[in-house]
Amino acid sequence: MNPVAGADQKLTVAQPYLIQQNWEAYTPEQHSVWAELVRRRMPQLLEHAAQEYLDGFHQIGLREDIIPNLADVNRRLKPRTGWNATPVSGFLPPDAFFEMLGARQFPTTTYIRSRESMEYTPEPDIFHDVFGHVPMHAHPVFADFLQHYGRVSASLMHDKEKLEKMGRLFWFTVEFGVIRQNGKIKLYGSGLISSHGEGTHVIEGRPEIRDFNLEQVLEQKFLVSEEQKVLYAVESFEQIFEAAQEAERRLA
Ligand SMILES: [Fe+2]
User: Is 175 labeled as catalytic in the residue annotation?
Assistant: First the structure.
């Protein structure tokens, strides 16, 4: 696949949600919340995150001490895989979300949580979106997978049941995905990367880890508000790209 296919595609449905990141407006307190969040996650991630996540973190120039300027992130990310971290105003409706993924634009909130809610925010924030998600977009196979996922999902907008199945594929890969590397379970899903509680839950061996199986994933219900009981481990990122293709064959 052409790595930059769709990168400059004009957005239509998502257009009303696009904003600018006013980076200069972040306060020292907000930068220090970012720094504290990163410093709390890093020791665990250096040992337990997928190598591709850690590589991506450096490739896109994330720093421990300041909130990322998305323009700087994109200057490094876009030449690699054609992806952009694109600032948006908050939660997107599904059609706008899938349109953006199909165009290699990851909807990224710019708000950062307050010190009072370090562990959990009901709304996604820049820590979840950029620290959690965006480093994986520097990986070419993951990058292709995520765009393909968006395109397939966009084509299923008319069918609620099929869309729900695609939502499960997203949940057990992009949000709560784990991968086996050198005989160990490593984290790559943003929900695990960005949450100390969820990451620790997995490292302590509490969820049942099954081999990734698309058929099961498409049927596997989950609860957003509880720690995960079942996760699916892939052997390689090619496996999730193939899963998105297989989902397309089955559902689209
Ligand atoms: Fe997320």
Answer: yes
Asked if 32 is an active-site residue, the reply is no
Show pLDDT as tens, one digit a residue, over the chain (252 residues). Answer: 444 444 567 899 999 999 999 999 999 999 999 999 999 999 999 999 999 999 999 999 999 999 999 999 999 999 999 999 999 999 999 999 999 999 999 999 999 999 998 887 878 899 999 999 999 999 999 999 999 999 999 999 999 999 999 999 999 999 999 999 999 999 999 999 999 999 999 999 999 999 999 999 999 999 887 889 999 999 999 999 999 999 999 998
Instruction: Render 156-177 in DSSP notation, one character per residue.
Output: TTT-HHHHHHHHHHHIIIIIT-
Structure tokens at 251: 């559902």
Cα of 139 to ligand 1 centre, how many Å?
17
Q: What's the 32 CA to ligand 1 centre distance in angstroms?
A: 22
What is this structure's pTM? 0.95
Do residues 181 and 54 make contact, with C-beta atoms less than 8 angstroms apart? no
Asked if 128 is an active-site residue, the reply is yes
